[in-house]
Design a protein that fits this description.
Elements (H helix, E strand, L loop, with lengths): L4 E7 L4 E9 L3 E4 L4 E8 L2 E5 L2 E5 L3 E5 L5 E5 L5 E8 L1 H8 L3 E2 L3 E3 L1 H15 L7 H10 E2 L7 H16 L6 H8 L3 H12 L3 H18 L4 H7 L5 H12 L3 H9 L4
Antiparallel strand pairs: 1-2, 2-9, 3-8, 4-7, 4-9, 5-6, 5-8, 7-11, 10-12
Helix pairs in contact: 4-5, 4-6, 4-7, 7-8, 7-10
Length: about 260
């Protein structure tokens, strides 16, 4: 079986990352990102789980992920999975389009897919293309921010804010439930219904995101594990690789090859 190829390019001029994965066969467990993900499938078929709904994805499909939305995917066949993606910080998207959310994580639009491929290729080659062309089709699939109910969601968001502020510490479910004003059992039930994942998985995703930022600055994997609350470097390496498809060391090395 051919080796999996993973390339990451960080473009400081455009304030985004380009990822290109080829031959991916391992599943990605449930997780979320704190940035927008715009992707296009090149080869292979997978089953995507996104906010509790299932989608079959294949070549040519656009992937449109909102920050904070949980998702996972598994291989639907024995063939490798190839895809390109752009990771855009919230502030970059809001500067282009205002505060938006994608209504659906999967779209079939050949013209938009071709546009994303061209833009992605330019990023991977170190180019700095005009962002407005990308923004035009982003707006097509974007909707106004969701209106959320106040009661249970307010408690869950309080728990999320607490985890975001204290992710580097050793936290128990009781610690997380307290700012939410809930019992542990109510927190688990409500969090799963609201976010589509457990508080533990949410906390781990926060830690991985923080570790990415440290690795980009050249911090060692061991130090990144320590500063983001992982119990040991082995566990950190395993979870980082499972969620992102790259080891922490490989991700840090990619930062050293960043193009302007």
């Amino acid at each position: 079986m051919p080796a999996v190829q993973r390339d990451v390019v960080r473009n400081r001029t455009l304030s985004l990352e380009g990822w290109h994965l080829r031959g991916q066969v391992e599943a990605f467990p449930a997780h979320f990102h704190d940035y927008y993900v715009l992707g296009v499938v090149e080869e292979g078929v997978r089953r995507l789980q996104y906010r509790g709904a299932a989608y079959d994805i294949g070549p040519g499909d656009l992937l449109l992920f909102n920050p904070g939305d949980p998702h996972a995917c598994v291989q639907d066949s024995g063939e490798g999975f190839d895809y390109r993606s752009l990771h855009l910080p919230v502030q970059v998207v809001e500067a282009l389009c205002g505060p938006v959310r994608f209504a659906c994580p999967v779209a079939r639009d050949p013209r938009a897919a071709a546009s994303l491929r061209r833009f992605h290729q330019s990023v991977m080659e170190g180019g700095a293309r005009e962002m407005e062309g990308l923004a035009q089709w982003v707006r097509r699939y974007a909707a106004l921010p969701e209106q959320r109910g106040e009661m249970e969601r307010t408690g869950v968001e309080a728990a999320c804010a607490f985890m975001a502020a204290h992710y580097s510490q050793r936290l128990t479910l009781q610690d997380i439930a307290q700012p939410a004003g809930m019992s542990v059992s109510t927190l688990l039930r409500t969090f799963a219904r609201t976010k589509g994942l457990t508080p533990h998985v949410y906390l781990e995703s926060l830690r991985i995101s923080a570790a990415q930022a440290l690795l980009e600055q050249g911090v060692s994997p061991a130090q990144a594990a320590l500063e983001t609350g992982f119990s040991d470097q082995s566990h950190f390496t395993h979870r980082f690789s499972r969620l992102l498809g790259l080891t922490p060391g490989a991700y840090r090395d990619s930062a050293e090859r960043t193009r302007p």
